[in-house]
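Lecture notes, unit on binding sites. The following record was shown on slide 14. It pairs a sequence with tryptophan.
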Amino acid sequence: MSEQIVLTGIKPTGTPHLGNYVGALKPLVEMAKTNKTFVFIADLHALNIIHDPKQIKQHTYEIAAILMALGLNLDNATLFRQSDIVQVSQLSTMLMNITPKGLMNRAHSYKAAVDKNIAAGVDTDAGINMGLYTYPILMAADILLYESDVVPVGADQKQHVEFARDIAGYFNHVYGDTFKLPEPVIGEDTGIIPGLDGRKMSKSYDNVIPLFAPASQLKKKIMRIITDSKLPSEPKNPDDSTIFQLYRHFASPDEIAALRTRFEQGGMGYGDAKQILFDKVNDVLSGPRSEYERLMSTPSEIDAILADGASRARVVAERTYNRVSRAMLG
Ligand code: TRP
């Protein structure tokens, strides 16, 4: 087992889809096979967008059940809910005082929100709450609290991990060596996972295939993937095809090569290709899906895992927070 501590957070803002599975959930489950890992559901980070507690709770259960159903190794991985550990909010308050405001002004997500307002001709800060503005500080608190070495994130989150490093550096400079400096690890490039319309699979494009949709719904979605109008007899380019681009994340190398040949040779219609894709995805996901459904109908099991995770996470959180409190307050 590697000595490096891995940490990542997942925001409960939507029902996970195949893009999340390929890009984040599957690699995370792999990583936790050989590393001590902290995985938390970042419910506090969802608050700047979602103001309905029912939704946050529902998505929190979904994410926890998905990770459990995918076989997350719960000996190595501490799975917990961010808000169960009060020290993260306390640390965030402390870090506010050494974080330059200018650093927050440079955050990509804040700048994007400001640019949108400027383009719309409204006040630059219209609709922007302090949760969004200070999001990177709370995220730095997550990363620093659990003494993590490695933070696997998507490219869009790299700046946040760099900010956590910067903030840890400022802190250590003022108060002496207190925090480890974390490293962002950008996952191996899985390429863009296309959605039903061929654009990147994303909730905001409304083109997603939910990870654990019942088989009938999964099939309906897959049959709705947009294709060009080539006839069955015509050769097709697999690298341009959403069907093939999804298939390659679920099938074995031999199966991928075989489907590539069938695309390139012609003689296979898109309807048949979709059926092949459905059979494969369904085959891979049907076991975990039944376990997911069982867990979702037994929330007490999920609660027990999250409670156990929280008690393990709290040990580290208290230790770090006490160090910070002594350094800052004496
Ligand atoms: N901001 C991350 C996202 O939107 C979620 C997150 C919160 C996170 N805290 C974290 C990721 C700490 C890594 C480490 O995806």
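Take-home: Strands lie at 2-10, 35-41, 77-81, 150-153, 183-186.
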